[in-house]
Structure prediction request, 501 residues.
Amino acid sequence: MHFWSFTPIALLELTFLAVLHGAKWTYNGPEGEHHWSKHYPYCGGAFQSPIDIQSKLLRFDPTLLPIEVQNYNLSPNEQLTLGNNGHSVQISLPSKMYISSLPHRYTAAQLHFHWGSYGRAAGSEHTVNSRQYAAEMHVVHFNSDKYHNMSMAVDKSDGLAVLGVLIEVGEFNQAFEQFLRFINGIKYKDQRIQMPGFNIRALLPARLDEYYRYDGSLTTPPCYPSVLWTVFRNHVTISRQQFQALATTLYSSHAQDSAAVPLKGNYRKPQLADSRVVLVSFKEGRGLRGIHTVTSPLTRRQIVKQLLVGDLADLADEGLYRLLPSGSEKLRVGMKEDLKDLQSENRAKSKQQTLNPSLRKKGQTNRSVGKSGLAEDELSYVSLEHRVFHQLKLSHREHQLVQALRDAVFPELNLKSYLDCKSDLALPAIRHILRGRPTDEALELDRSLTKALMNQGNMSTALKHILPMTHHGSLSPATVPREPQSQSYPHPWLLPMEWED
Ligand SMILES: [Zn+2]
Prediction:
């Protein structure tokens, strides 16, 4: 996925971001993906894309409707702009095109591609059980119910929806020919031409009802985690010749540059799953035996509500374990009693507080109201970045921007994702919610959760999603070296949190 558009407003925005961040990025070398987070801190942050779509991350969700697209069949009279932005080839799309089957209307903005190189037909961004396809198409849409344009939406947590299409080399594809026949006219960076419209629907696979769904990010700087991803299960094919045209015609350098740099291998490597799950709209086929079905939205909301205001002991006894990262078992037997004791103590305490209002903690009520309103408030990443940067500046710790942003954004993102999109509820998110609760009771629940997660037989499996690597680099999860300490020593998230009093 790629944030680039031809509209003057978007170009202005891009210039602003470039000034803010220092701009240049590539897929290899000193400006390559491992260095993106220096200038674009979200690239090292939470909920990044693409990911390796592994069977163990999948959850069947019976509520996922077939994708429906509107006005995708464009007439040849409608002119489209085909351009080379130095990172990809992109086609601008008219705003009458939209997705109608999501909770909001998502209006199309552009589509573009990621691909391998001449000798290597492996350049998709998403991989399925580590299998990389030859190329990948992204059709980018923004939430036009809530935002006026792409620039407004790009950094909002509910801003974008992207359709991802995996592409393999095989049969010739007539639909791809509609734009491939023009790419000789945009060999160099910043070149663009007008071309006749065609049926964009024909670029998508025949079946739009089978897909993977997860919460993720732009796969290029600034990497905002603002994308609701739909990756279709079925790939499309292009011929070897068509793939070679895509992989060998274009340059990421300007026509006037003395050294021409080929535009190839423009894909980002898979990112950490980060306690996310991948929802699937189907449950038949290879790798899907014994696939879990997601908890119903009602149960999920009830549990979050209970975390916010309900009986924590009941929650520990009943359903919470089901919503923890995959494979978590029931919480320790007997905890309910411990908590009941604590609760009666707390009730006594709060009675005291009622009798003596001066003992009441300031802001306690406001805080829990704030938390319950969280699901409706959307995060804005630009303003969050400014705020965190400002705070860090005060404490002379600017180099920690990536980690600080990650810490600031992860719990809310996880909670939002959990409410909207059924991610597993990670411990940081639970802690985030529990901050508004009576201290002893919540602390006890927190301890039990930590213990339950650590006591699991297969700790490496259970904690895989919540034990992040120290570097948030872009190595494929399979090739990231395990830290020796992660087996024996819990991550800070698993240690008892600091309570405010
Ligand atoms: Zn893309």
